[in-house]
Amino acid sequence: MKEHSPRRWVSQGPEDTFRLAADLARKLKPGDVLALHGELGSGKTTLVQGLARALGIDRPVSSPTFTLINEYRGSCPLFHIDLYRIRDSGEALELGLDEYLYGNGITAIEWAERIAELLPPGTLHIRLEPGEHPDERLVTIQGGRDS
Ligand SMILES: Nc1ncnc2c1ncn2[C@@H]1O[C@H](COP(=O)(O)OP(=O)(O)OP(=O)(O)O)[C@@H](O)[C@H]1O
Ligand SMILES: [Mg+2]
């Protein structure tokens, strides 16, 4: 998807984040990589749950913190990666995670900054930050590819 200038939203709760993810999903294409940034509990997995729902995936989407990667078959394959337990790009390469960065699905990566130097140039960066009340999140989307 093409999304060069930063765009910001305020999400007032998980359902809002699902809606935002659904809007986003409509613009995504196979091969797109989403780097999800934000602290523990900021809503990265929640956003991927919204993407999955929008891609017609019925299976529950849980956090791949221990499995590192979960694969789902929707209208387009969805690869959900969580790098919380990965130290750096070297470790990610040893585990073969780079193949998902140039694959045929939509790849959403939590803690993507751990492999910053491996992310393809057209990566869409999504940042979730705390808002003014407990359920509020400030969401910034930046990046994307041309074609
Ligand atoms: N506006 C919001 N958007 C997303 N999640 C929200 C929002 N408001 C509250 N929440 C809650 O915050 C929590 C976010 O948890 P989630 O697992 O998505 O975070 P995460 O960023 O994936 O954390 P981790 O780094 O541990 O994987 C959920 O319990 C969710 O219901
Ligand atoms: Mg998570």
List the helices and strands and how they pair.
Elements: E1 7-11, H1 14-27, E2 33-37, H2 44-54, E3 69-73, E4 77-82, H3 89-94, E5 106-110, E6 124-130, E7 137-143
Parallel strand pairs: 2-5, 2-6, 4-5
Antiparallel strand pairs: 1-7, 3-4, 6-7
Magnesium ion binds at residues 44-45, 63, 82, 110.
Task: Walk me through what this model shows.
- The protein is an alpha/beta fold and 147 residues long.
- It has one domain (30-143): Rossmann fold, CATH 3.40.50.
- It contains three helices and seven strands.
- The protein has a seven-stranded mixed sheet, covered by helices on one side.
- Helix 1 (14-27) crosses helix 2.
- The longest helix has 14 residues, at 14-27.
- The chain binds adenosine-5'-triphosphate and magnesium ion.
- Magnesium ion binds next to helix 2.
- Magnesium ion (MG) is lined by residues 44-45, 63, 82, 110.
